[in-house]
Every structure is written in structure tokens, then in C-alpha cells.
Amino acid sequence: xxxxxxxxxxxxxxxxxxxxxxxxxxxxxxxxxxxxxxxxxxxxxxxxxxxxxxxxxxxxxxxxxxxxxxxxxxxxxxxxxxxxxxxxxxxxxxxxxxxxxxxxxxxxxxxxxxxxxxxxxxxxxxxxxxxxxxxxxxxxxxxxxxxxxxxxxxxxxxxxxxxxxxxxxxxxxxxxxxxxxxxxxxxxxxxxxxxxxxxxxxxxxxxxxxxxxxxxxxxxxxxxxxxxxxxxxxxxxxxxxxxxxxxxxxxxxxxxxxxxxxxxxxxxxxxxxxxxxxx
Length: 279
Hints:
It is a single chain. The chain is an alpha/beta fold and 279 residues long. It has two domains: 4-78 and 177-262, D-Maltodextrin-Binding Protein, domain 2; 84-173, D-Maltodextrin-Binding Protein, domain 2. 38% of the residues lie in helices and 18% in strands. It has helices spanning 12-22, 39-45, 58-61, 109-117, 132-137, 165-173, 190-209, 215-221, 227-237, 240-243, 246-262; strands spanning 4-8, 32-36, 53-57, 68-70, 76-78, 84-87, 101-103, 124-126, 143-146, 160-164, 177-185. The strands form two sheets. Strands 1, 2, 3, 4, 5 and 11 form a six-stranded mixed sheet that branches.
């Protein structure tokens, strides 16, 4: 088989997950070519099946479920890790419909959660995730919807947390919040899908067991250069669900996708969503 294109973000959780796979730290039968892009660009590239394997927002997956399935490994899913609404000045969320909001992308799970919990917010502008803090500080937006490393830097820059959308999700549904998945093209042979799924799980395990191995690769690509922030990012987004979604993870994902469809925010997904369990 020709080299498989693997798309993921330059954020520390993704570079931590894939470093061992990409640098041949264990035996793996396929050649994989890394393609690093902002998650919203990955979401949009998936609309045309640009890559065989790609990190996607779970919200974006619904729009490409006819082309991709979700792997049980490599996901960003958990508790206390949801997107935050932040502001420069005090704002009244009861008047959220009057506010101008910077979002990290139309297809992000963050934007889906904003639409679920604040459907009255319609004045949204897409801004690359790493630039949202700056835009809010300049006063161009009343609110910023932040993800990734920004969770650990906004307070030091004088910005205030207005709402934690992950907390809203957990309070309503009592499930971990599904943020991002690794999706693989449906048209690949089943044995390839299963091998890639296992290879990513093995890569996560290697990263946990040999944390020093990935540090240079993480530093090379990180938006935030502080090693402390990078580690906090990894600790927040990489966990047991990143090795195997398991029953709890799959239930949370199915809930997000089905609820999003129920409230007319997502298209209905093509089944089956998942490939087989990791063996």
C-alpha cells in the first residue's frame, strides 16, 4: 500500500500521541506521512477526503460520516476539558444574543456546544484558535471561544472566564465531553483500519511510558513554547480514552452526534460510525 496521509494538529496532545508512530519507535507495517494543520482546516479538508486518516472535531465528523469512520484510539475526550468563553470586560450572558463572538471554526465541537447552550448567539466570526485571545484583548469581540493551549494562558493575559461549556455539557448529560477524534476513510480495507487503530493506541502507550521521547517533537510544533503549558495540555487531553474509547467514550460520542442531529445542528450520521474494537 502507498504511504498513508495522516492529518493532525500541531498541538501538544496530538504531537505527543503520534510521535512514536511517526518516528518508528515500535514495529508498524505502514508508511505514514504527517500533515499538520489547524483543526478547523483539517475539518474542511475532510469534506473532500483529502487524507486517509485525520484528526477531526467530533462535530465535523457528522458532515463526513459517509466518507470516514471513527477509530477507538487517538481521541480527545474527557471531563473538565471543554471549551471556554472568555472576555476582556464583564459581560451579561443573559444578553448573549447581542454579543460579538470569536469562534475557532464553524465545524469545531466548541462551536457546536456554543450553539447548543447559547442558540441565541448568531454574531460569530471564525478566527484561528491561536489568535482569539489577541482579538478579544484588542476589543474586536465581546467574547472569545477558546480551545487548546489558550485554556492555560488567557488568565495571565488579563482575560476572564465567562462560561465553561464542558461544565454545561457534563451538568446536563453526565457524560465526558467528546472534543476530537481520529477518523479513517471508509474505503480502506478493514485490516488496514484495524492496524492503524492499534498502531495509534500503541503510540499513545509508548508516549506515556517514554515521555522524554516526544519532548523535542512537541516543542518543535507547539504554539505555546512553555514546557509547563505543554505538559498541562497533554495531561488534560490525553488519557485512557486516547488509548481506547471504550463503552463510556462511545456512548458519549453517540449522544453528542444524535443530540446535535435532534436539535438540527448536525446531519444524521451514516452507520456504522466506529470500526471494530481494539484487539
